[in-house]
Hints:
alpha/beta; Rossmann fold; seven-stranded parallel sheet; 43% helix; globular
Amino acid sequence: MKIFISGVSSGIGLALAKKYLDQGADVYGLSRRPCPDSRVKWICCDLKDLDSIKGSLNELLSHNANIDLAILNAGVLGTIQDLSAAKLEELKAMIDINLWANKELIDYICGERTCSQVITLSSGAAVNGNRGWSGYSLSKAALNMMTSLYSKEFQNTHFCAFAPGLVDTAMQDQLCSITETDNFTSLQRIQNARGTENMPTADELADKLPNIFKKLLEYTSGSFIDIRKMN
Ligand SMILES: NC(=O)c1ccc[n+]([C@@H]2O[C@H](COP(=O)([O-])OP(=O)(O)OC[C@H]3O[C@@H](n4cnc5c(N)ncnc54)[C@H](OP(=O)(O)O)[C@@H]3O)[C@@H](O)[C@H]2O)c1
C-alpha cells in the first residue's frame, strides 16, 4: 500500500505515518521540519510556497504512478481572535496553507497520478462557528466544500473531509496556553478535556484511524465526517 501524508513532522501526521509503516505500507510525506521516522520517504516542502508544491511532489513521487491513500493533514491554527481583529495578511497566509495548498496537492495526486482515496483533515470548527476561531474556521469550512467539489471531478477517487476530534498535539499546546477565555468560551471546554479520554494522544488516535479510514469509504464521496458522530 502506498500512502502520502502531508505534515509528517509531528502530531497526527507523524503518528499515522508510524502506524501505517508498522503495518507494512510505503509512506511518503512532506513537512518543513524533517520527519523523525527515517522509514518515511520524506521531502522538505513549505506549503506556504504554493508554486513549489508540484515540483516537490514530482521529486517525491517520481516512480509512483498510483497512490492508494492520500491524507492531507498539514494545517495551522493561526491566532484565536475575533475575525474583526484579524489582519487580512495573516488570514490569507493561513488559507494558503489550509486550503490552497490542498488544491495543489489534489490536482497533482489525482490529476497527474491516480489515487483511490483522499482524506482532508478538517475540524468541528468548520461548522461550529465559535467566536475566536475566525480564519481557522473559514479555512476548514472552505476545505470541506473543496473536498465535496473535487469528489464530482475525480470520480474514481473517494473523498472525505474528516474531523478527528480533540487530539493532544502541538495544536493543543497552543490552544491550552491561552489564558484569556472569557470571550472565547469554547476554549474552556477544550482546556478541560486535556488529559482526559476526550482528548487522546496522536498515537492513541492513530491506532484506530486505519480502520476508521476504511469505514469512510461507506459514506458518499465528498462528505464531511466528524469522528464523534460516527457509529
Ligand atoms: N489536534 C487537534 O485537536 C485537531 C482537531 C481538529 C483538526 N485537527 C487538524 O489535524 C491536522 C494535524 O494537526 P495536529 O494537531 O497534528 O498539529 P501539529 O502537531 O501542529 O502538526 C501539523 C503538521 O502540519 C505541518 N505543517 C504546518 N504548516 C506547514 C507548512 N507551511 N508546510 C508544510 N507542512 C506544514 C507541520 O509540519 P512543519 O511544522 O514541520 O512544517 C506538522 O507536521 C491539522 O490539519 C489540524 O487542523 C487537529
